[in-house]
Structure formats: C-alpha cells, structure tokens
Amino acid sequence: MDFELKGRHAVVTGGTRGIGRATVLALIEQGVAVTTCFTSDSAESESLPGAVADLGGQLHLVRTDVRDAEQVGALMDSAVGRFGPITALVNNAGVISHLPLEAMEPAEWHRILDTNVSGMYNTIRAALPHFTEQASVVNISSGVARHGMPFAAHYVTSKAAIFGLTRALCKELGPRGVRVNCLASGVIDNTGHKNPRGDEGKAMYVEMTSLRRLGEPAEIADVVCFLLSDASRYMTGAIFEVDGGI
C-alpha cells in the first residue's frame, strides 16, 4: 500500500527492534528518510543498517537515551543536519518490567516513567523547532492503559499518561498545523516484552483476543504509516486501538 510519504523525513525513537524496527522498515519502503535511535548495542542495532540498505533506503542511526534532554536535542540537530526538517515523529521508545508494588523500588518506578513519558516530552519539545508545516506525531501507547495489568503499575501508569499528553498537545499544537495521535497496541508478538508466564501467558492472550492470535509488529507499523500520511489529515488527538479485539 502506497501512503504517498516519499521524500519525507521521520524520526522514530527506539527503532532497532519490535514495533520500532517494523515502523522504520515500513517507512523506508515508503521512501521516507528515517532517523532512529537506540540505547545499547545489540544484534538488532547492528543488523538494522544492512536491512535498510537492502531496501535502498536512507537511515541515520544515533545512540540516544530519551531520558536525557541534552542527548535528545543532539539527536534532533543531527537528524536535521542529515536529512533536513522533520515531517514526522514516532515516539516508540519504551521499557517495561514486572514487579508487585511492594517490591517496586523508587528507582525502578522512575526508570519506567522517565523513559516512557518524560522521554516523549523530551523528543516532542526538541523536535518542535524542526517540524515542517503539517507535521505529524504518533505516540505509541498500550491497551493496558485502559484495561490495567497486575504487577506493572509503573508501566500502566506511563501508558495512560501518554493518552493525556496526546490530548493536551493536539489542542496546543493544532493551530501550528501539527497533528498528534496515539496508537494503543494490543499484545504484539516478537516485541521483546515477554510475558513473565511464558507460553502459558501467551496462550492466555491469544484466547482473550477476538482474532485468536497475537499481533505482528508490521501490523502496528501499517497504522503508523496511515497516521503519518495525508489520508489522516483531519485526525488529531485520537487514540487508535490496534489490538485484535482483546
């Protein structure tokens, strides 16, 4: 499907694996120049440039901790220096852990909130001066923000906060022509966020999902491409649930 994005420049945070990687590759296939970031070396971060080269695309890969405003500012400056003004921003970087509240130390609470929420604040704020007219922001959240999940109060809280951030910024940035939407994903296979109950937990989610299967990262990436395209030009402040009917 051609979303007519060719020639644009997108910044995707956390783009080396899972949903982020699928989004990077989908945008590359659409002819978008992509800047993305990662926090630590891995097989995925090492293989991404080759995967993009195989598609004939343009990629700028930068090590960045989205919790650090200075690093994020440097990321945006580097992105603009390489590919020019930013047409699209996909806030995908996120972390998770599974702990009961009584075992959740303050440092772990802050690690999750600082990455998943403050990281988005940092990236959107740093990108604002570099946005083209009619830029589009997509914030990746999760269906657990609505449904809840035990042993992950910090993660659920962070994903719910993204709903509020999206709704606030759609009103603030709309007069500038910047659209801000949110994608709440269901249980996606191969994201690296493994259910602590293993195969039993995976089977439970399959049974809970109307389509009787888990989602694939590429199925999230397709919706991201739609939200970045002119096909969604009158959509902002929306929360799109892509969850197979869980």
UniProtKB/TrEMBL annotation:
Segments crossing the lipid bilayer: none
Taxonomic superkingdom: Bacteria
Domain Ketoreductase: 8-190
PROSITE patterns, per database record: ADH_SHORT
UniProt xrefs under InterPro entries: KR_dom, NAD(P)-bd_dom_sf, Sc_DH/Rdtase_CS, SDR_fam
GO molecular function, one term: oxidoreductase activity, acting on the CH-OH group of donors, NAD or NADP as acceptor
One of the Pfam families matching this protein, by short name: adh_short_C2
Keyword entries, A-Z: Oxidoreductase
Family: Belongs to the short-chain dehydrogenases/reductases (SDR) family.
The protein's name: Short-chain dehydrogenase
Species of provenance: Paractinoplanes ferrugineus
